[in-house]
Amino acid sequence: MQVNLHQSFSLLAAADGVATPFPIFLLALAAILVAAVVLGAAAQRVGQPAVLGELLAGVLLGPSLLGIIDPADPVMHAIGELGVLVLLFQIGLHTNLASIFKVGAPALTVGLVGVIVPAFAGYGVAYGLGIHGVAALVCAAALTATSIGISARVLSDLRALETMEGQIVLGAAVLDDVIGLIILSIVAGIAGGSAVTVWGVSRTTGIALGFLLVAIAVGSKTVPALFNRIEKLPGSGALGILGLAFALALAALADFAGSAMIIGAFAAGLVLHNTPHRKQVEKSSTALGYFFVPVFFAVVGAAVDLRSLADPDILLIGGLLTVVGAAGKYISGFAPFWLKANKPLIGAAMIPRGEVGLIFAQLGRTTGVLDAGLFSALLLMVMVTTFMAPPLLAYLARRGHTAGTGTGPGRRGDGSGIDDLVAGERPRED
Predict the structure, then answer these.
(1) Annotation: CATH topology of 83-423
(2) Buried b (16+ CB within 10 A) or exposed e, 300-335
(3) Which phi and psi (to 5°) does residue 409 adopt?
């Protein structure tokens, strides 16, 4: 029997069994990419990270306005999930664990305070407003994140990334994201039906930490030698492709082990960070991320119900979470009281939630823990904290005379890395 390829690929099955015509899906995907590029560039023109433009692209194209994309479409959702894995893989590639130990006690103090204070404050706000159970935990967990991409990008633009303050922020942000990923894994387990007991939480934490440690220990011994052999294979791009394959495989293994897939993708990046092949892998995954990551942000934006933002209760929740989230992170900059540094700059650099906060919010939405109103309130918090960071950091850097003279890790200008995927690619510096 002859197969008609046009008919075979003309329909995509939706979750409810209703088929979406493939050409319509392609047009929706094209609309996402065009809108994300245009609005991402517009956001950069006014001094904001590209991620905000991509979120607004999703809001514009989503059911609340034009209705071009459906955030519940399973294929669109799958593409967005791949974007999350690429994003976490990039964060891992960008994370130098040795740098955390170099800045030592100040980064540890800032990081821990930056998790504990916002989390407890966020849970208190949610509980006080009548939000209980797992929904309150998701609200609290979303406040623990700090966007490495946005913070590193803005600090490097200010030539402050190589300063003591910049290194403390990077170390603390890495610590916050590692803790945040563990919390996310715990919340995901609870949302999936795990009992909220000391044993249950301890088990989930142990699995997440254990998988991370085992993956790093085993991977650090075996992966470099494997990649050295792969490097000798003919053909270009083999290392980049297999680096991505390694990330996807570890993500699947993390899920099989009972942890979150993002833990596996993050661990893969950590393993490859210290290899001589990191730049090539990072370049390849960034190129892939230019397609998948904007789709993730746009799908998240499309899930926003603008009508819910007209609800005074939702605006109150979002506003209060924004206030305690920003204040909790800002206070963390003053936690190392013995340190002589530009502490307001450190605190302000910890504020933006960016891509990591969105992952928390998206988890709550897809698991059904958050309704449309609470999801929109969390997204409002993510957007406001991300909006406020660049101008606040610029002001504090000028006032505190914090400036570096080097190029710093975030000033590569080569179009690769987590900073370019989240904040947007900068012009090449000659």
Answers:
(1) Na+/H+ antiporter like fold (1.20.1530)
(2) bbbbbbeebbebeebbebbbbbbebbbebbbbbbbb
(3) -65, -25
Q: At what angle do helices 164-191 and 97-128 cross, to 10 degrees?
A: 50
pLDDT per residue as tens, the chain (430 positions): 343 433 333 333 344 445 567 888 888 899 999 999 999 889 888 877 777 788 889 889 988 888 888 877 888 888 888 888 888 888 788 777 776 677 788 999 999 999 999 999 999 999 998 888 888 888 888 898 887 767 776 776 677 767 888 888 878 887 787 787 777 777 777 766 665 667 766 777 788 788 888 888 888 888 877 877 776 666 556 777 888 888 999 999 988 887 778 778 888 888 888 787 788 788 878 888 888 888 888 888 887 778 777 788 889 999 999 999 999 999 999 999 988 888 999 999 999 887 777 777 877 887 778 888 888 889 889 888 887 887 888 788 777 655 444 433 333 344 456 666 766 666 554 4
- How far apart CA 376 and CA 142 sit, in angstroms, is 13
Q: In 3D, which of 286, 276, 209 has the Cα closest to residue 247?
A: 286
SS (H, E, C) 207-255: HHHHHHHHHHHHHHHHHHHHHHHHCCCCCCCHHHHHHHHHHHHHHHHHH
Residue whose tokens read 């390694």? 246
Contact yes or no for 185/260 (Cβ under 8 A): yes
